[in-house]
Amino acid sequence: MDKELLNFLLNGESQRIYKDDKYLEILNKLSEIDAKLQLLLKSKPNKSLCEQILDKTYVIVPASEIDPKLHPSLFILDLDGEKVLVTFKDTIELLKMHFIIYKDQVETKISRRLTPLFGFLKKNGLIYLDHEDMTYKFV
Question: Where are the domains of the chain?
Fold first, then answer.
């Protein structure tokens, strides 16, 4: 710790006071504060929910973190009572359009942006291929 700063904090008292337990405690606390500030400066800020969705097409979060009334433009799908899948309503509408247009060929013709969402929904049984009309449908 810089001696000038310590002298300022101790109101210019003599250096013999540095050895007093009270002032050593101050030095330790200042060192802790300095370490935490350095850590905060180096850490990346958390992205907002919308930024996360834009990055990954969808996110899975605890149900307690999402209030559907506060996010009218979000599509929220309950997965297991504790977690929900969150994406934009427009994304789901676009996926449904792909189902109608490409029917059973969605897997090969789907846009790259929708591929992660489609894969997740299919893998977890949230969509299925209806063999009567050969289109994918939500469960």
Answer: 3-42, 49-138
